[in-house]
Design a protein that fits this description.
This protein is mainly alpha-helical. The protein contains 5 helices and 2 strands. Strands 1-2 form a two-stranded parallel sheet. Helix 2 packs across helix 5 and helix 4 packs antiparallel against helix 5. The radius of gyration is 13 Å and the shape is globular.
């Protein structure tokens, strides 16, 4: 089962609350989280996002964060399942984008985050 955050069916304020709740409960291995935190300092949307989310690179705000969260959740599910197609580098890049985009959204006043590493 692939966890996803539904954005289109909800008013934007409910979508924002759903994204905030999902980020607050996000728990990943410490090494993965540490690599993403370092990467977030070097993240550039125009350079990094198209390679991760070609279909979602035109989105912004909470929709973009939700799209990244959905892709990251799929990568995490592959990791947990031991899927041979799991790519740790892509997973780090997705978490990096998630941290950077959530921070940008928070800075604009649209998101509170308190994610934690396991």
């Amino acid at each position: 089962m692939r966890p996803e955050i539904m954005i289109e069916a909800q008013p934007l304020t409910l979508a924002l609350e759903a994204a905030e709740a999902a980020l607050a409960t996000l728990s990943r291995p410490r090494l993965l989280a540490a690599a993403a935190r370092v990467g977030a300092t070097l993240y550039r949307r125009q350079r990094d996002l198209p390679g991760l989310l070609p279909q979602g690179s035109g989105a912004s705000g909470v929709r973009l964060v939700a799209a990244i969260m959905s892709a990251e959740a799929a990568a995490n599910a592959a990791r947990l399942a031991g899927d041979p197609t799991y790519a740790p580098a892509r997973h780090v890049k997705l978490l990096t984008a998630l941290l950077a985009e959530a921070a940008a959204l928070k800075q604009s006043g649209g998101l509170e985050t308190k994610s934690r590493a396991a």
